[in-house]
Amino acid sequence: MRKQYLHLSAYSCDKCHGPVVSASLAVRENAISKETDIRQVGAICLSCGYRQDQATEPARARHVLPMEWDPADAIDLRHLTTAFVEALNRAELH
Ligand SMILES: [Zn+2]
User: Fold this and answer.
1) Domain range spanning residue 71?
2) Which residues of the chain have pLDDT under 70?
3) Separation of CA 41 and ligand 1 centre (Å)
4) Pick from 30, 59, 74, 75: most CB atoms within 10 A?
5) Are residues 12 and 48 in contact, defined by beta-carbon separation less than 8 angstroms?
6) pLDDT value for 57
């Protein structure tokens, strides 16, 4: 059965050494298949807000065990992008 998994990882921020949390989604067609359709959802430093999308060597990302995540419109990439653009537009207005 086709299932979607959420992967979370954490690594050090280049700017402030705070924790960056990065998320990606992957799909498994069945229990023994490899993950496919891996999509980066987003990454952000919880301390300063810097969007650093991967760990800088030699720092290593620490990974949380993948968790099953029901496909939801809430984490549709197009949706996220739209929300992000709207947030930027709002920021420019002020
Ligand atoms: Zn930071």
Assistant:
1) 3-93
2) 72-94
3) 18
4) 75
5) no
6) 85
Query: Which of 6, 19, 5 has the alpha carbon at shortest distance from 55?
Result: 19
C-alpha 45 – ligand 1 centre gap (Å): 5
Looking at the DSSP assignment, which residues form a beta bridge with residue 79?
A: none
**91 C-alpha to center of ligand 1: Å?**
20
Q: Which long-range contacts (CB under 8 A, 24 or more apart) does 54-58 make?
A: 54/11, 54/22, 55/9, 55/11, 55/12, 55/20, 56/11, 56/12, 56/14
Distance 57 CA to ligand 1 centre (A): 16
Q: Quick one: pLDDT at residue 59?
A: 80
Residue pointed to by tokens 């924790």: 19
Distance CA 19, CA 48 (A): 9
Number of domains in the chain: 1
